[in-house]
Amino acid sequence: MLSKRLVTDEFVIGVAVTVSFKGQVALVTGASRGIGLGIARELVARGARVCITARNPEPLAEAVQDLGGPEQAIAVAGKADDPAHQQEAVDRTIAAFGRLDLLVNNTGINPVFGPVLDTDPVAAAKILAVNVLGPLAWTRLAHRAWMGEHGGAVVNVSSIAGLRTSPGIGMYGVSKAALSRLTMELAGELGPRIRVNAVAPAVVKTKFAEALYLGREEEAAAPYPLKRLGVPQDVAGAVAFLLSEDAAWITGQTLVIDGGVTLGGGL
């Protein structure tokens, strides 16, 4: 089951649907699990076909089956900051589905924990390469391959760590702040044919974020006014909205998805 909602061309359980991606094609990076896979599921449920990427081919193959098989999804394994992988993924998307309307730059890394001043320069450069320069490169390729001529929409997955100080994951926060700023610049440059927005989630229950909540979920959720951590679907629905024509007059924005936790200054 791809979604808890029954999606057809016109109705979601009797309610008119405006968010439909029938006939459109999306590329979602970092989508073998977690938030990326949740986004891919949502897009497929709403009619899109997708190309998903991640480093390891085995989880990607499982994700393709989860998404409905090769008629609905293809996968390309590789490192998100590798130019050859980026080009291959875009080329294979066009070859398989004939177009590329939607891009979700979801891949992000945080290989270090500690003060920014103590961050190894090599590690810092890698974080920026994947989290900032990667989305720039993916957007450039999507623009050249299809969107520049035909239009499209891009959503970058940022983080509330980029909105304020984020002790212990400061370099990650720096990269996500830069990604939100990059979103603004690209929106200004690529309009009117291409819209570029971002989402900034708080802690979402995925393997990537386990260190922030595993074994202490109730404590971790206590500062949130909604009294729970996020799940991938919380982000997926917002991303689908920003990619859709329902958001046709929205570009250059970062939508905070945080259960209200930043109202009190928390992470």
UniProtKB/TrEMBL annotation:
Transmembrane segments: none annotated. Keywords: Oxidoreductase. GO terms for molecular function: oxidoreductase activity. It comes from the Bacteria. CDD domains: SDR_c. Gene3D superfamilies: NAD(P)-binding Rossmann-like Domain. It holds the Pfam family adh_short_C2. The keyword Cell inner membrane does not apply. Belongs to the short-chain dehydrogenases/reductases (SDR) family. This is NAD(P)-dependent dehydrogenase (Short-subunit alcohol dehydrogenase family).
